[in-house]
Automatic annotation (TrEMBL):
Membrane as UniProt keyword: yes
Signal peptide region: none
Listed GO MF terms: clathrin heavy chain binding; structural molecule activity
Annotated TM spans: none
Identification of the protein by name: Clathrin light chain
Keywords: Coated pit, Coiled coil, Cytoplasmic vesicle, Membrane
Annotated organism of origin: Beta vulgaris subsp. vulgaris
Family recorded in the similarity comment: Belongs to the clathrin light chain family.
GO biological process: clathrin-dependent endocytosis; intracellular protein transport
GO CC, alphabetical: clathrin coat of coated pit; clathrin coat of trans-Golgi network vesicle
Location relative to the cell: Cytoplasmic vesicle membrane; Membrane, Coated pit
Coiled-coil residues: 18-58
Cited InterPro entries: Clathrin_L-chain
Length: 126
């Protein structure tokens, strides 16, 4: 049994070796690209979480300040204001856009009128 390699077999073997090397190179490039993308994604997530934490802290701080101011103002009105000023402070009298204006506008205007009166029900005589 003579072992003779034909020219076609030799060309096929050379092609297979080149193809195998090309595929291995592509796999390696894909692995590197995937690793880079993974590192970039991790960095992006860390940046997002850092920005989110900073934003949350700023909002919480602003909310605490606003709540302190609101409570101080509310305590002042509750101690010194008339009954209707107290009611007006507890009720949101600002119209809400998009809502049915007719249903609440009369009540809102009535509360504002009562709040601004110097005499009437619930107002102590000075």
């Amino acid at each position: 049994a003579e072992s003779r390699i034909s020219f076609a077999d030799l060309r096929f073997s050379i092609w297979q070796a080149k193809r195998k090397a090309e595929l291995e190179q592509k796999r390696e490039e894909e692995r590197k690209e995937k690793a880079e993308l993974l590192e970039q994604a991790k960095a992006d997530i860390q940046t997002f979480l850092k920005n989110r934490a900073e934003s949350t802290e700023k909002k919480q701080s602003a909310n605490r300040i606003a709540e302190t101011e609101f409570r101080t103002d509310l305590e002042s009105v509750m101690k010194n204001g008339t009954l209707w000023e107290q009611v007006a402070k507890l009720v949101d009298l600002k119209p809400k856009p998009g809502k049915e204006e007719q249903a609440t506008s009369r009540m809102r205007s009535l509360l504002l009128q009562l709040k601004n009166q110097n005499n009437g029900p619930g107002i102590k005589a000075s």
